[in-house]
């Protein structure tokens, strides 16, 4: 259905995420992948979805001068929000362990934002999903990090991987949002573009 609506448009996914690529493929969309290095720093005063929206916009900025009128650029960002702090991607094993110990036995929010950018406008959508974790043992945390190397995932875990299977008691909201792409909101935004 989207394919028909987007016949005159060319989609560009500006992400290295295999999960985002897979979701767009599952939506039966044709797109190309283009990436650029972006410093993902953000102002300290930003909170919650302000962070993921800021970063989704920031990731679009290097492409603005290259876009053609028929192109739609897709940029996205996901954070884990817990106790007033954003957990991004861990830089080391120690940081991944610390993050997983922090979310163990608690409820956190996963916030994903997508920016759809054209030469004439930008639409940003976000979604929030609550994730409730069981208490994780040190052995479970170490096993997961050793075997799954979650260094490309916000909060140091993937819901679609082993730790998500054994550690998540329940979620409130969109599963795919936790994977890193708020598909339903993205679908609505594409109609607006």
Features of the shown structure:
193 residues; 35% helix; globular; 7 strands; alpha/beta
Calculate Rg over CA atoms. 17 Å
The mean pLDDT is 95
Order of helices and strands: HEHEHEEHEEHHEHH
Proportion of helical residues:
25-40%
Distance between the termini: 15 Å
Which segments are poorly predicted (pLDDT under 50) over 5 or more consecutive residues?
none
Helix tally? 8
Total strands: the figure is 7
Structural class estimated from helices and strands: alpha/beta
Strand composition percent: 25-35%
> How does the major sheet shape up?
7 strands, mixed
Net shape: globular
Give a structural overview.
The chain is α/β, with parallel strands linked by helices and 193 residues long. Helices cover 35% and strands 26% of the residues. It has eight helices and seven strands. Strands 1, 2, 3, 4, 5, 6 and 7 form a seven-stranded mixed sheet that branches. The chain starts with a helix and ends with a helix. The model has no long low-confidence stretch (mean pLDDT 95).
Q: What is the gist of this entry?
A:
The chain is an alpha/beta fold. 35% of the residues lie in helices and 26% in strands. The two termini are 15 Å apart.
Question: How is this fold's topology laid out?
Answer:
Elements: H1 2-5, E1 10-13, H2 18-26, E2 31-33, H3 49-60, E3 71-82, E4 85-87, H4 93-103, E5 107-117, E6 122-133, H5 138-148, H6 162-167, E7 168-172, H7 175-179, H8 183-192
Parallel strand pairs: 1-2, 1-3
Antiparallel strand pairs: 3-4, 3-5, 5-6, 6-7
Helix pairs in contact: 4-5
């Amino acid at each position: 259905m989207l394919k028909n609506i987007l016949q005159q448009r060319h989609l560009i996914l500006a992400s290295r995420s295999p999960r985002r690529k897979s979701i767009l493929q599952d939506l039966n969309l044709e797109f190309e992948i283009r990436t650029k290095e972006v410093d993902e720093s953000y102002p300290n005063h930003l909170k919650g979805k302000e962070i993921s929206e800021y970063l989704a916009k920031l990731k679009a900025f290097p492409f603005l001068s290259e876009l053609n009128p028929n192109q739609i650029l897709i940029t996205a960002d996901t954070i884990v929000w817990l106790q007033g702090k954003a957990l991004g991607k861990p830089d080391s094993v120690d940081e991944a362990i610390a993050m997983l110990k922090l979310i163990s036995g608690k409820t956190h929010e996963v916030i994903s934002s997508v920016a759809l950018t054209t030469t004439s406008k930008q639409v940003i959508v976000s979604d929030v999903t609550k994730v409730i974790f069981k208490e994780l043992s040190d052995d479970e945390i170490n096993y997961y990090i050793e075997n799954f190397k979650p260094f490309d995932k916000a909060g140091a875990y993937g819901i679609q991987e082993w730790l998500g299977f054994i550690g998540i008691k329940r979620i409130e909201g969109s599963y795919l949002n936790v994977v890193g792409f708020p598909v339903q909101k993205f679908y609505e935004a594409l109609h607006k573009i």
